[in-house]
Amino acid sequence: MTILTQETIDEILTYLEKSINNLAKDVFGNLELDGGFDEAINFLKSQFDIRLENLLVAKGSSTHHLESGMKNKIIQRKQEVFQNISKQYQN
Fold first, then answer.
1. Which domain of life is it from (predicted)?
2. Are 70 and 9 in contact (CB under 8 A)?
3. Fewest beta carbons less than 10 Å away: which of 6, 21, 73, 74?
């Protein structure tokens, strides 16, 4: 297990935000999900979590090993990302 710094977490979150925003463009540009907007958001949130864990594992860590302050930062950033996506794509 590797101890991650705030800088590393910030880099991961910045990369992840760009990745999810690009995925959102694709998802909403080709919306073929039966559940519409809500289903797309659920898919994107799931992808956020999966990709976050993969990025952390690549750095030798995991969400389970993060300090509570870092977990809170991730939660806040995730909320911001999805608020922005909702504003941009919700009709």
1. Archaea
2. yes
3. 6
